[in-house]
Amino acid sequence: MLVDSHCHLNFPDFVPDLDVVIDRAREQGVGVMQTICTKISEFEQVHAVASKYDNIWCSVGIHPHSAGEESVTEAELTAFTQRPKVIGIGETGLDYYYEHSPRDAQQKSFLTHIAVGRATGLPLIIHTRDADDDTIRIIADEMKKGKFPALIHCFSSGVKLAEAMLELGLYISFSGIVTFKKAEELREVAKIVPLDRILVETDAPYLAPMPMRGQRNEPAYTRHTAAFIAELKGVPEKEFARITTDNFFTLFSKATRPKGI
Ligand SMILES: [Zn+2]
Ligand SMILES: [Zn+2]
């Protein structure tokens, strides 16, 4: 079985056929999914999807893109994490590539999410783009104040960021980008991430892996990315599926593992 650790199933792209999408994922062995919150104002939608399906979990948080338009207090965020289906905090982090929100607002929001991660023990789902130095600095500083579980989702930077994150105890999740022709540097990163720290995701509806690139992405396609990385690392596909599934349930320990898997 595989887990799609990060997808956005509340997005309008899935309104017409979500049941079919979930069935297709199951048929492809993607038995568990985490649908990710990007805005507090959409949390109830995200939560409704997770509540409807027993194999779907969710997160709560504000994407760095929306950190300028929305804010949340530690107390409010903590209250959302008490819902049984909420297993992670985010996605949060820094995106200086698009910079849809001012950098100081992104950092402030990131710090709020970290504080709640530390207090609740739920893992942080971190999005970081073109912000390596600030990401390393903030996580290193915050870890000194008290450890918190975390992963870098849809990793898209280089070996330097990966090594710094691994050193700080973080997990790293790869999306379909790793299958793209020009992603040579990312493949080098995938080779050095130890098997016990690696997760896979789609980030659907975005970033469909080869050979579906350009189409709407969906959880079933986790399989292509997983098969690709398994081959890259010289691990049998089944073994890689087992390892990444174990990693998911180790990190997101609030999620219940389906029986017999
Ligand atoms: Zn993201
Ligand atoms: Zn995302």
CATH hierarchy: architecture: Alpha-Beta Barrel
Portion in strands:
15-25%
Number of strands: 8
In CATH, what is the homologous superfamily?
Answer: Metal-dependent hydrolases
Residue share in helix = 40-55%
Q: Calculate the terminal CA-CA distance, rounded to whole Å.
A: 7 Å
Radius of gyration: 17 Å
Average per-residue pLDDT, rounded, comes to 97
The third-level CATH topology is TIM Barrel
Kindly report the spatial arrangement of strands forming the biggest sheet.
1-2-3-4-5-6-7-8
* N-to-C order of helices and strands: EHEHEHEHEHEHEHEHH
Q: Categorize the overall geometry.
A: globular
Summing up helix and strand content along with how strands pair, one would put the structural category as alpha/beta
Ligands and ions found: zinc ion
